[in-house]
Write a structure and sequence with these properties.
α12 runs antiparallel to α15. The longest helix is centred in the middle third of the chain and has 16 residues. The protein is elongated. The protein folds into three domains: about 220 residues, HUPs (Rossmann fold), CATH 3.40.50.620; about 110 residues, Tyrosyl-Transfer RNA Synthetase (Orthogonal Bundle); about 80 residues, Structural Genomics Hypothetical 15.5 Kd Protein In mrcA-pckA Intergenic Region, Chain A. The chain has a five-stranded parallel sheet, with helices on both faces. It has a five-stranded mixed sheet with strand order 8-14-13-10-11. The N and C termini lie far apart (about 65 Å). The protein has about 425 residues and is of the alpha/beta class.
Length: about 425
């Protein structure tokens, strides 16, 4: 059972550990959990770190528990935040729970007959049964205000440097999370809570509650917060979060995010976001360093995660989409793209509209380049570009004046003009 801790160590995924945790896990198969607040109907790539930890935990023979915070999601976790977050109602949280479970199932085994199949629980199921009197009497009396005030997440929010302060609602968060651990210990003998390093204060409130109420030593492990090498927040792009739901972040954008990470980040991420062995990782890093231009690490991470999250077919589409812009491609490659991906690729590319009626009669390519669109400044410039063999229509080089017809449409609605390698123009037919 020592395999789990060893995996986290060499992958750089171990931060804080309650003394005795490693020894306990090396000798016992156990149940451990990580909490996720269902504040959105999709996980984002920041959620992949705890998910991978749960998968390593399961691979080592332990039983992983995904705890969805239906109750805590109504309150808001103050850890690492300067402002109080908006509270969500029960209906939204229930909807989110159903959507998230599908995403967890892509990584964790919930359905096999193995004794350590994953378990999903929602803390609303037990917290909703508590009255404030019962909770205050049975739970609150075991943790002092002094203990709660000493937590870093609390001290930051009530410091003189902040104007927002901290509501009583948020102040109780750590106690509710602590009770989650106590409940899971009593119901299923759960001995371990895991999470990000920013959760250490909340997690240790749980171990302290179990110690004081049950006279039992429970265990805790946290992983470091993953950041980019430049210090910026991992999982963000110019458009915000990179989501696991393709309707919120296209497969193409998801794939491109990983392809475009720095070499330094790739060396970190290949350990965190794949299940390659240590020898395989070391060999891949060695090969990558021989010719960094090939971006072997970035491609491996992008391929692996895209398949895990979206599947083989979506990976093929993402690769095809990348070829369209950055490699050799054909009209067939363009036609293989679905509308969402096509629009994603050419978002921001200059465009104009032409009627189907006009195209049905055929348009001289030099006129399409200049008079029917403003891609090129004049017909004479279009003729020069054609002679220079620098014009492509739908990724095919055109060196002479021809007529463009409806047969030249991609998916019945687009014609892609290109001059050189990077100068694109989109004709939309309506």
């Amino acid at each position: 059972m020592k395999e789990f801790i060893d995996q986290l160590k060499w992958r750089g995924m171990l931060h804080d550990v309650i003394p005795g945790s490693e020894e306990y896990l090396s000798k016992n198969k156990t149940i451990g959990y990580i909490g996720f607040d269902p504040t959105s109907d999709s996980l984002h790539i920041g959620s992949l770190v705890p998910i991978f930890i749960l998968k390593h935990f399961q691979n080592a023979g332990h039983t992983p528990v995904v705890l969805l915070g239906g109750a805590t999601g109504m309150i808001g976790d103050p850890s690492g935040k300067s402002d109080e977050r908006n509270l969500l109602d029960k209906n939204i949280l229930n909807f989110n729970e159903k959507k998230l479970k599908v995403q967890f199932e892509k990584f964790l085994d919930f359905k096999s007959n193995k004794s350590n199949r994953a378990i999903l629980v929602n803390n609303y199921d037990w917290m909703s049964k508590f009255s404030i009197i019962d909770f205050s009497r049975d739970i609150g009396k075991h943790i002092t205000v002094n203990y709660m005030m000493a937590k870093e997440s609390v001290k930051k929010r009530i410091s003189k440097d902040t104007t927002q302060g901290m509501s009583f609602t948020e102040f109780t968060y750590q106690l509710i999370q602590g009770y989650d651990f106590l409940h899971l210990y009593k119901e299923m003998n759960c001995m371990l809570q895991m999470g990000g390093s920013d959760q250490w204060g909340n997690i240790t409130t749980g171990t302290e509650l179990i110690r004081r109420k049950e006279n039992v030593k429970a265990f805790a492990i946290t992983c470091p917060l993953i950041k980019k090498s430049d210090g910026s927040k991992f999982g963000k792009s110019e458009g915000g979060n990179i989501w696991l739901d393709k309707n919120k972040t296209s497969v193409y954008k998801f794939y491109q995010y990983w392809l475009n990470i720095s070499d330094e980040d790739a060396i970190t991420y290949i350990k965190v976001f794949t299940f390659l062995t240590q020898d395989e990782v070391n060999e891949l890093i060695k090969e990558h360093n021989k010719d960094k231009a090939k971006r072997l690490l970035q491609n491996k991470i992008a391929d692996t995660l895209t398949v895990m999250v979206h599947g083989e077919n979506d990976l093929k589409n993402a690769i095809s989409a990348s070829k369209v812009l950055f490699g050799k491609s054909s009209k067939e490659d363009l036609e293989s793209l679905d509308d969402n991906t096509f629009n994603e690729i050419f978002d921001g590319v200059p465009s104009s509209k032409i009627s189907k009626e006009k195209l049905s009669k055929g348009i001289e390519v030099e006129n399409l380049l200049a008079t029917e669109t403003n891609f090129l400044k004049s017909v004479s410039e279009a003729r020069r570009a054609l002679k220079e063999n620098s014009i492509s229509i739908n990724k095919k080089r055109i060196s002479q004046n021809i007529k463009i017809t409806k047969n030249d449409l991609i998916n019945g609605k687009y014609t892609l003009l290109q001059r050189g390698r990077k100068n694109y123009y989109l004709v939309i037919v309506n």
